[in-house]
Amino acid sequence: MIVALAGGVGGARLAVGLAAVLSPQILTIVVNTADDFEHLGFAISPDLDTVMYTLAGVANPATGWGRAQETWNFMLALEQVGGDTWFKLGDRDLAVHVLRTLALRRGASLSEITRVLATRFGIRHPVVPMSDSAVRTRVKTDCGELAFQDYFVRRSCRPRVEGFRFVGSRKARVPAVLLRIIRSGKVRAVVICPSNPYVSIAPILSVPTIGAWIRQRDFPVIAVSPIVGGVALKGPADKMMRELGSAATALGVVRHYGDWVDGWVIDHQDARLKRVIERQGKAVLVTDTVMNNRSKSTRLAKRVVAFAQALGSGK
Questions:
Q1: pTM given for the model
Q2: What are the pLDDT digits (tens) for 269-278?
Q3: For labelling, which of 1, 110, 120, 265 has a CA lying 20 to 30 Å from the CA of 39?
């Protein structure tokens, strides 16, 4: 069994590749929910939706998030009557938010409604939120502490980042399906997808049950660097790293994760860092990590799985 930790576009793209090479009985995808929020009365789960849409093949290919062939009649009508339009909800996307909100109001858990939605999208692999209770990322900035979507969308990541905190993580309620996996003793590897280390992966690791499980592991943890050639291919991870005093490089990401990770997958553009990372006591695989189509996602996933198996045989 392999557990993938994912959030955002990079995480979703590797999840697609892993799903292509591993059966639903082998792969579980655990998704960040700390950037969830309520907007216009709807329960919005951006990372869950990005992962689901990408796995289902209905994500917007230009942005990597949102629905393909989206229309915006609702937002146009909302703007005409003076509504709040800083966070865009497409017409197709809105259907998911409506169903999620209604289910939660009826008492369903986030993991339950996620399972139902994933099934209706034809997704066979388990997609599991990191928590059934609310965990919310707060971004400490030079403009004060901001809710994540305020920083990320409304302010377009412009404020200077000074730190993060994850409200509710200490009391997070891990979904039953994930608890069973954690307690099974059958996990052979954890794969940290190339997601933002600060706001996609750190919230997952901040959940005590998940963090303790990984720290006490008897399996390898493999991570794919989200920084390629000194640049984050999607999102503000490189900006955040620089503002927090870290080098925006694959090596900077390695140092950020420290003992959380046993083996690193880095891009050919960063091959010169291989020996330096190995001196940090990490195994390193150099390969093509840029996933701009499903074929490349699958090719990378095969290399990642083989790398994990090789490290696992040595544990």
A1: 0.95
A2: 999 999 999 9
A3: 120
